[in-house]
Amino acid sequence: MTELVPMSAAPALMQSGGGSSLPTVRLSRRAKAAIVVRLLLNEGADIPLEDLPDELQAHLTKAMGAMRVVDRDTLQAVVAEFAEEVERIGLSFPGGMAGALNALDGKISPHTAARLRKEAGVRESGNPWARIKAMDSDILVPVMEHESIEIAAVMLSKLDVTKAAALLGKLPGPRARQITYAVSKTGAISPDAVERIGLSLASQLDSRPVSAFDDGPAERVGAILNSTTSMTRDDVLTGLDESDQGFADAVRKAIFTFGNIPDRIAPRDIPRVLRDIDQGDLVTALAGAGSMGMEKSVDFILENMSARLADQLREEVAEAGTPKTADTDAAMSAIVTSIRAMEASGDLMLVSPDED
After folding, report:
1. Which residues of 115-126 are buried (b: 16+ CB within 10 A; e: fewer)?
2. CA 120, 126, 128, 133 torsion: positive or negative?
3. Residue 260: which of 350, 129, 128 has the closest Cα?
4. What share of the chain is helix, strand, coil (3-state, %, to 5)?
5. Please, what CATH class does the domain formed by 256-344 belong to?
6. Per-residue pLDDT at 192
7. What percent of the chain has pLDDT above 70?
8. CA within 13 Å, CB half, 320
């Protein structure tokens, strides 16, 4: 077993002035690296060696396998030399275009990153399956639909249970059944094969064209219509129905209006939502909702607040009478904007329109 000093002694060793009083150690840099890694592992340090290139991992493993016993003087000299080299480092760079792109991930535009990655002929580093797991289900659905049944079964097996279930739910029934049956045939597949499949899928997904927009077309149109008047919104949706029924349905799912409150907000969240809404806007919206066919939203709001506050609001609404349509639209828009801001900040979770 390798003879090592406790890590608690390392600070004293690191203060040895570069090891001037210690013997000169004639070891290869790989052997010295093996000693340092062995010492850190013995002390329970979590070293992400998997992030090293495969070749360096192999060299390190072979160097450790070739060593037996290291005396204390040699250990102290290696640690002192390592500490001195670390202290001399002022700034380090990732090395290579791939490392630079990973370091700047999220700091430069996706379009620029994709173009530079393509020009340099490099792919994203790291665990391919981790990248695949982090992708949205809508991106993975086409892979499940067009790849071979066997490849789809491997991908399904590597995904988290929740995401795998969501993917199956978006596939046609026969295709979903074929893939789930093929999972039973993946028991004998080797880790190397799974790794190669992951690299191939990640490379395929990484090569997708980068969109100039963060959201899809339906989401963008829905966000715009959220801020328009009800008359404009209804007119645009009617036109979309005539041009593209599928797109119109997608836009309706992306829209959140005052009339959607009963379907998109949980009853328990109404008191919290109302705390951030101007009282004047609330009274105006409730007073004008009836003339716009949104009585359901009024009833939903009043039924899910305290009885005392609900009675007070009913009195104020009755005194306000029926406001102008423009005033009602403005008040409803302000309420929707407040709710959307709560959702964006994570203070509110809207109910999905697909949920029953």
Report:
1. eebeeeebbbee
2. negative
3. 350
4. 70, 0, 30
5. mainly alpha
6. 86
7. 83
8. 22
AA identity, residue 197: I
Residue 297 is predicted with a pLDDT of 93
Class of domain 126-206: mainly alpha
Specify the amino acid at residue 214: D
* Distances from the Cα of 318 to the Cα of 273, 281, 302, 323, angstroms: 22, 15, 14, 11
Place of tokens 């899910």: 304
- The residue among 350, 321, 326 whose CA lies nearest residue 338 is 350
Span 259-281, average pLDDT: 91
Closest CA to 81 of 130, 20, 125, 140: 20
157-203 pLDDT, tens per residue? 998 888 888 888 888 889 999 999 999 888 888 888 888 898 888 87
With the C-alpha atoms ordered 105, 108, 114, 117, is the resulting torsion angle positive or negative?
Answer: negative
Per-residue pLDDT tens over the stretch 1-34: 333 333 333 333 333 334 434 444 578 888 998 9
Nearest to 229 by CA among 248, 257, 261: 257
Which ranges in the chain are annotated with CATH 1.10.220.30? 126-206, 256-344
Mean pLDDT over residues 319-338, rounded?
90
Rounded distance between C-alpha atoms, residue 69 and residue 121, angstroms = 44
Structure tokens at 166: 């969501």
Q: How many Å apart are CA 222 and CA 242, to the nearest integer?
A: 17
- In angstroms, the CA 240 to CA 147 distance is 33
Sequence letter at residue 126: G
C-alpha to C-alpha distance for 281 and 304, rounded to whole angstroms: 18
pLDDT greater at residue 44 or residue 213: 44
